[in-house]
Amino acid sequence: MKRMSFDGAERRRYPRTHICTNVQIRKGGFVVHGSLLNLSIGGILAEAEIRLIPEENEEILKVDAEINIDIPKLHLRALRGKILRVSSYGLGYQVAVEFTELKPEIAHKIIDRFAKNSKSKLT
Q: Does residue 11 belong to any structural domain of this protein?
């Protein structure tokens, strides 16, 4: 679902590509494992099941928490971000993260992922 403003305009700054793969959200020595739902140059949307979040890890999933993100399948490691939104969803949480630092080579990897998704949809 797209986020809309009160006047009905799209609020997203960057297009997203849907992708289903593992993601790790890290802060200090704590790690939350989840599933990546979508990815853009601006950030990610991930989902983590409650049973995968030990109590001591719940501090990671707080709005404005500064975190690191690993997306092993895409060979993306230690992406820096800030949690924008955490909402209950099914048996877990959906976590929206905005990248706070994104090196140009990482942005190119994300753009390449968009290109691959576009080609597979055309064939």
A: no
> Does residue 10 lie in a domain region?
no
* Alpha-carbon gap, residue 35 to 33, rounded angstroms: 7
Which CATH number goes with the domain that contains 26? 2.40.10.220
Q: What is the DSSP letter of 69?
A: E
Q: Which amino acid is at 75?
A: H
Which of 9-18, 31-40, 109-118 has the highest average model confidence (pLDDT)? 31-40
Q: From the CB of residue 2, how many other CB atoms can be counted at a distance below 10 Å?
A: 7
Tell me: the pLDDT tens digits for 54-63? 565 566 778 8
For the purposes of burial, counting CB atoms within 10 Å of the CB of 44, is it exposed (0-12), middle (13-18) or buried (19 or more)?
buried
Task: Report the number of distinct structural domains present in the chain.
Answer: 1
Domain span including residue 27: 17-122
Task: Report the C-alpha gap between 117 and 16 in whole angstroms.
Answer: 11
Which run of H or of E encompasses 22?
strand 17-27
